[in-house]
Structure formats: structure tokens, C-alpha cells
Write a sequence for this structure.
């Protein structure tokens, strides 16, 4: 039996989680636990949005819009149009009608006193996801961006409205130093045979999860820890992670991101790093960090391709045990 925990966020994390689910099902292994970033969360028009939670949930449920890459398949925008007519919300941040139903349900349950963990459990119960979903924390620790010109704004405004075009100097999660991991997170990591860092944005998706007090130490103490590169051929696959990496002084290269996470042998995180065939020449640089490089095809073009990536990671973990 192989118990797997995934740390994930965003579309890349959702696609990878689908692959892990498929790989484990084919092997007859138990379902994975995915700990999802909640740093992207925000309040908008009186409702609580959790973009990464919803991306992972919709993907696992087969409800995601694979064309746009976010939201629900077949969604409409009548309510969003009406909100904009009233001058409410953000005109550059679209809320689909089906998606808004999720946000309203979530907000109502939160107002009734449920925790984020309990809300995620209720949402996930609607569909057979085949994966246990946990938020990283029940606390509100939204990501803010400190800009080079001195301004500060919510990550979603910087990311969605400005498309990361405004130069950032720091990413912050106010209150995260006082947050605690959501119930079950530390226990799942401690019981895992392997912890997988998804090919999500290292700075604003994986970074906030690891910043919740106790999580980084738990991952460091796990049996095996493998990361999967979201950089292929020196470029990000999706989004503007390169801008985020540059803000913290990390080059957009597979070996540089591996160095950012660091080797567990030096008191940091990784035992092995799954990197793209296009970056095979960087394998010696990764090995020199004390991290075992695993070269594999990394384009997540469909579930089968994502499952093959998961297989490469799981096989590497099994060899290392």
C-alpha cells in the first residue's frame, strides 16, 4: 500500500492530481490526499471565493471548463453581467452562474459557523472525486502583492487584472504566522509513504502551503518527498510563475526551482525532482544539489499523460525506499 499526499494549487495542481488519481487507481492503491492552497482566496461581492479549491474540485468531478482553464464547464454569466450593471464586484473578474452557486453555498455554510475544512468536505461530497481534499488551513491568509512602486494589492487583482505586468517585490500572506494547518493535514503527511509537490506555482501556490506553521517541518520529516517541475525548457507551462520566481530571485529553470525547494539532505525538502526531457541537460546540476533527478515527459496534455508523470514520481519514490 502506498499512501500519497499531494501539495497543490491552480490548474497545474488540478491536472497533476487527476493524474495521481488515475495512476493510483490503476495500481489498486488507496486514494490520495491533496492539500490545496487557500492563499488565492478572497471576498468579492459578499461571497467567499476559493479559486484553487474549486479548480481541484471541478477537475476531479469532471466539471471544469478545460477550454478556459478555470470555472465550470458550460457556465453562463447572467448574474455577473447584472453585478457589473450595478457597479458591483470587479469588472475584470468573471463569476459564472454555476460557479457563483458554489460560492454562495460556501459562504452560507461559513456564515453558519462551519470551518473551511468542513465546507470543503461538503462540496466534495457532491461528486465522487476519488481523492480526499483538505485546505491548507481554516484561517483566512489571502495573498497580497507588494509592488516595486510601493503599492500593495490582493494577488487576484495583480494576477487577473494586471496579468502580473506590475513589478512585484514580495508576496505576503498576512496572519499566516498565526495560522494552523487544517485538521488532518499534519496527520496525512506523517502517515504518507510519499509527499508530492505538484507542478504548481512554487511561490504563490506551494509557498503558502509550506508557510503554514508546522507544514514545512512535517514535509521535511516525511518518508519520501518528490517535486515535479512546472518549468519545461526554461519556460513556465501556464500563467506567470516566471514573474513570481524572479521576484524572489529564482531563475526560470528546472534546476533553479529544485534549488529553491532544496535537498532534504541539507535540511530542506526534496529527495528527488521530476524534470522534463527538454531539461535533461540540467540533471547533473540537480544531482549536485543532493537531489536525485528523474527525467520524464512532463506535458500534461490529458489525464493519461498526467498519470504517466505520476507513475514516474511514484516509481522513483519506490526505488528510493
Amino acid at each position: 500500500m502506498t499512501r500519497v499526499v499531494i501539495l497543490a494549487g491552480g490548474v497545474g495542481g488540478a491536472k497533476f492530481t487527476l493524474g495521481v488519481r488515475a495512476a493510483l487507481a490503476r495500481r489498486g492503491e488507496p486514494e490520495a490526499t491533496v492539500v490545496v492552497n487557500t492563499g488565492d482566496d478572497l471576498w468579492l461581492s459578499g461571497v467567499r471565493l476559493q479559486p484553487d479549491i474549486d479548480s481541484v474540485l471541478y477537475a476531479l468531478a469532471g466539471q471544469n471548463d478545460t477550454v478556459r482553464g478555470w470555472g465550470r464547464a458550460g457556465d453562463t454569466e447572467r448574474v455577473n453581467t447584472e453585478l457589473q450593471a450595478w457597479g458591483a464586484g470587479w469588472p475584470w473578474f468573471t463569476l459564472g452562474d454555476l460557479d457563483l452557486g458554489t460560492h454562495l453555498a460556501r459562504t452560507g455554510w461559513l456564515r453558519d459557523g462551519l470551518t473551511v475544512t468542513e465546507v470543503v468536505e461538503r462540496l466534495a461530497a457532491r461528486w465522487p472525486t476519488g481523492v480526499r481534499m483538505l485546505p491548507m488551513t481554516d484561517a483566512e491568509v489571502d495573498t497580497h502583492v507588494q509592488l516595486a512602486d510601493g503599492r500593495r494589492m490582493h494577488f487576484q487583482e495583480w494576477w487577473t487584472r494586471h496579468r502580473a505586468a506590475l513589478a512585484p517585490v514580495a508576496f505576503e500572506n498576512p496572519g499566516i504566522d498565526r495560522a494552523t494547518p487544517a485538521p488532518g493535514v499534519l496527520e496525512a503527511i506523517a502517515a504518507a509513504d510519499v509527499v508530492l509537490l505538484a507542478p504548481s506555482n512554487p511561490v504563490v501556490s506551494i509557498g503558502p502551503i509550506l508557510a503554514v506553521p508546522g507544514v514545512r517541518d512535517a514535509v521535511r520529516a516525511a518518508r519520501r518527498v518528490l517535486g515535479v517541475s512546472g518549468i519545461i525548457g526554461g519556460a513556465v507551462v501556464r500563467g506567470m510563475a516566471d514573474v513570481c520566481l524572479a521576484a524572489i530571485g529564482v531563475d526560470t529553470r528546472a534546476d533553479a526551482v529544485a534549488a529553491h525547494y532544496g535537498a532534504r539532505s541539507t535540511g530542506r525538502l526534496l529527495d528527488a525532482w521530476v524534470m522534463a526531457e527538454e531539461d535533461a541537460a540540467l540533471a547533473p546540476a540537480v544531482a549536485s544539489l543532493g537531489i536525485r533527478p528523474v527525467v520524464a515527459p512532463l506535458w500534461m496534455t490529458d489525464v493519461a499523460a498526467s498519470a504517466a508523470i505520476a507513475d514516474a514520481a511514484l516509481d522513483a519514490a519506490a526505488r528510493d525506499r
Summary: Residues 10-27 form the longest helix (18 residues).
